[in-house]
């Protein structure tokens, strides 16, 4: 069974990151969540990043606000795919500092970056990565996406009814 690690710089990031936790659990993917600060607990960051693949994780989701070094630092030390979630924090410059810190990675150190506070999409992307080699997860993603499609169709039908 595949596992996803979700790490964030502080507990204040949890309300945003909860959406990734919830969506992954909805796909029956095991999730481990931890606080790993790039600036306040660098030793923990190094240990986590260097050993994540040995600890059974398939994908890492890292959320951070402000300077947002966590996703890039994790990616620099881990062979696993890393998905960065820029978090608009209280010390943020409208979230742009977080977005650019995660998005503008040097060649050779990729971080897949989702929208500001886009943890739900990070969870979906992690599930899709796992689904590329796990048919059970893939089937759940297909079902989920069909549900999204149906919601739009139902909404359009409801709108037509109101119009008449």
From TrEMBL:
Pathway: Purine metabolism; IMP biosynthesis via de novo pathway; 5-amino-1-(5-phospho-D-ribosyl)imidazole-4-carboxylate from 5-amino-1-(5-phospho-D-ribosyl)imidazole (N5-CAIR route): step 2/2. Residues 2-152 form the PurE domain. It comes from the Bacteria. Substrate binds at residues 10, 13, 40. One of its GO terms (molecular function) is 5-(carboxyamino)imidazole ribonucleotide mutase activity. SMART domains: AIRC (SM01001). Gene3D superfamilies: 3.40.50.1970. Catalyzes the conversion of N5-carboxyaminoimidazole ribonucleotide (N5-CAIR) to 4-carboxy-5-aminoimidazole ribonucleotide (CAIR). Keywords: Isomerase, Lyase, Purine biosynthesis. Belongs to the AIR carboxylase family. Class I subfamily. InterPro entries: PurE_ClassI, PurE_dom, PurE_prokaryotes. It catalyses: 5-carboxyamino-1-(5-phospho-D-ribosyl)imidazole + H(+) = 5-amino-1-(5-phospho-D-ribosyl)imidazole-4-carboxylate. This is N5-carboxyaminoimidazole ribonucleotide mutase. Its EC number is 5.4.99.18.
